[in-house]
Design a protein that fits this description.
By secondary structure, the protein is of the alpha/beta class. The chain has helices spanning about 5-60, 90-105, 110, 125-130, 150-165, 210, 230-305; strands spanning about 75-80, 115-120, 135-140, 170-180, 185-190, 205, 220. The chain has one domain: Pyruvate Kinase, Chain: A, domain 1 (3-Layer(aba) Sandwich), CATH 3.40.1380.
Length: about 300
């Protein structure tokens, strides 16, 4: 059985750790509030930008821009977005596991040929894929301390240059999408080539005219005249769309990380409280045992004196 001094030392250590986890939870909560506001503000713009670009590409020449070009996939770039730090539960492990699964299930042959290039965003991704001898094209570490739009532009500029030069035939991004404090959803999105509407699907904007006329299962679609042209609009939208797609992924990952860290630190604080209670009970038992032993020794000594 541990001595009283050892138990007291352990209780003191757990209490100090609990103070740290409480502080980290408060910091994560403050960061989460700001990150969540940024994500909520960015989602409608990202959704509408993607919707507009897909609709325009459905009524325009698909060869209007090289970033729409679909070719046989002989080389892939995976943008894996993790955190720079740990202490956020399974946040980083889930992303890395999904990326590894994607490599070995979808791109296994390309990986064996050294044609899967990994762009690591976050120290945890860089550490894992670096130690396990994956082909790392680039690393972006420490960007979350001062996260801004230029980071997304830098990453997109790199993959666009690689795609146009033929170094990559396909670019995907894997990141954590923020759902709530206790829940994140891993998202895998294709960045390049840019996806257009499926063949044969008409582009346009649906109206409620058919619904008001009482005609079931029929939609009225409006097509527009574009000035100067739909192709020119697409050319101006493409860089905005790609940059914001990357920026949106970074915002989602940042919010999801803070939510995961807040939940992890809350669990750690609760576990520390339970551990302190268990140690305190052990301390009381050990102290009671020590007192009982001392009393027995005193009584035994007194009886021996009487007998002598």
């Amino acid at each position: 059985m541990a001595t009283l001094r050892e138990i007291r030392r352990r209780i003191s250590g757990v209490k100090n750790t609990q103070k740290i986890t409480k502080a980290m939870k408060m910091v994560a909560a403050a960061k989460l509030r700001r990150a969540q506001e940024a994500v909520i503000a960015a989602r409608p713009y990202a959704r509408k930008m993607q919707e507009l670009l897909h609709k325009l590409s459905g009524i325009s020449d698909p060869t209007v821009h090289p970033l729409f070009e679909r070719r046989e996939v002989e080389s892939v770039a995976l943008i894996v977005v993790t955190a720079d730090r740990g202490l956020c539960g399974a946040f980083n492990a889930n992303i890395i596991r999904t990326a590894v699964q994607q490599i070995y299930t979808t791109y296994d042959k390309l990986h064996k040929d050294g044609k899967v290039n990994i762009i690591c965003v976050g120290r945890k991704a860089a550490d894992y894929f670096g130690k396990n001898n994956y082909k790392i094209a680039n690393k972006y570490i420490g960007i979350y301390g001062s996260l801004n739009f230029s980071h997304a532009q830098t990453i997109i500029d790199e993959v666009v240059r690689g795609f146009v030069a033929g170094e990559y035939d396909k670019v995907e991004i894997i990141y954590n999408e923020f759902k709530s404090i206790a829940q994140q959803r891993i998202a895998t999105e294709q960045v390049l080539p840019i996806q257009s509407l499926p063949t044969g699907q008409k582009a346009g904007i649906t109206t409620d005219a058919s619904m008001k006329a009482g005609i079931p299962n029929q939609k009225s679609v409006l097509n527009y005249i574009f000035e100067p042209s739909s192709e020119a609009i697409i050319l101006s939208l493409i860089p905005k769309h790609l940059n914001f797609q990357m920026w949106h992924a970074l915002l989602e990952s940042n919010a999801a990380e803070q939510g995961a860290r807040m939940a992890a630190m809350d669990n750690a604080t609760t576990n520390a409280t339970d551990m302190i209670k268990a140690l305190q009970l052990s301390y009381n038992k050990a102290r009671q045992s020590s007192i009982t032993k001392e009393l027995l020794e005193i009584v035994s000594g007194a009886e021996a004196l009487k007998a002598g």
